[in-house]
Amino acid sequence: MDRPVVDHRSPEFAQLTEDVRVGLRRVFGTQDGAPMLYPASGTGATEAALVNVLAPGDRVLAFNYGLFSGGLGNIARKFGYDVDEVGLRWGQAVSPDLVEEKLRADTPSNPYRAVLICHNETSTGVTVDVAAIREAMDAAGHDALLVVDTVSSLASIDFRMDEWRVDLVICGSQKGLMLPPGLGILGVSRRALAVGSQSGGSPRHFWDWEPIMRENRIGLFPYTPATLMLFGLRESLRMLVDEEGLENVYARHRRLANAVRAAVRGWGLSTVCEDPTFASNTITAVRTPSGVDSNELLRYARETYQLSLGGGIGQLNGQAFRIGHLGALNELEVLATIGGTELAFADLGIGVELGSGLVAAQRAFSKARVPALAAV
Ligand code: PLP
Prior knowledge:
This protein has helices at 11-28, 42-53, 67-78, 96-104, 130-139, 190-199, 209-216, 227-244, 246-267, 294-305, 331-347, 356-365; strands spanning 34-39, 59-64, 82-87, 112-118, 120-121, 126-127, 145-149, 168-172, 183-188, 283-287, 310-311, 320-324. The chain has 376 residues and is of the alpha/beta class.
């Protein structure tokens, strides 16, 4: 990415556009879905997804189980869509049975046009089973579009756009794709494209798929693209798809997440995620012991050890901290994070034994399947 800016109307750039679109299809898990790239972020991609397929007054089904799933409903409401939002506890995942129940009870005269799901709720560290949600929609015989926010899961946690018949995949450049912020990324199914061109959607210009599709076919964009970001994206897609391989990338995230969760158990603390089946492989939100302000822990860890933990956000402000474990990350970096967190705990007098999480994480990583102490 650190290179002179090229002419975005040159043949070199047209090839870059094509390479990036091919690589994105691989991480979306689609043969014929259309990638859309905006100089934006995940929020922009969300807006683009909604305004192309929904018209004011359209009904959508949403679930609030954290800041970002709740955000989907908030964005939709601002465009005048009629949002039926089901409130869940922050820490819960969306249950497929609930989706099926809501869809079966839908009004046939004015049905939901879309179901909005956040695959990985970054505020709570919960991953929703999108395949099961798709099965629930099929079981209810409902044909709403399935819209999935994958901002903190794509290219880190298994995702299959075609197999799960996801219509809109929302993402950004700055998480699993290992880039700086700056790109809003969408995967659009053939069906969503057709809905977009037939139903009219909402007033839009910058987000409109039609000119993007037309220009992308010849390697161009209808606006000035984020040129250097696209060079970075081509490289990160090569690293993920061709060098490490997506299955290995997912396995690495599983391995790192397992060790973080082992450390949290070793500390005797609990995760915000209520059911370990839905624990996220990209982020773990940890409840701080009562009486401990997580913002103070964060500030101390940053200032003293240059350790950047995530804060508790939304209703978890002050009550939880988050350990991110996605992207370009390995075992030793995870151990350093856990060790640093323990130092901060100890310095602040939080009653967590030094080494309790570190040893648990080392055991989770160790290739020797015998418990470390048994050999002594
Ligand atoms: N959705 C999820 C799950 C996120 O984690 C985020 C940001 O962290 C967003 C949406 C918003 O994306 P952005 O900050 O790229 O606009």
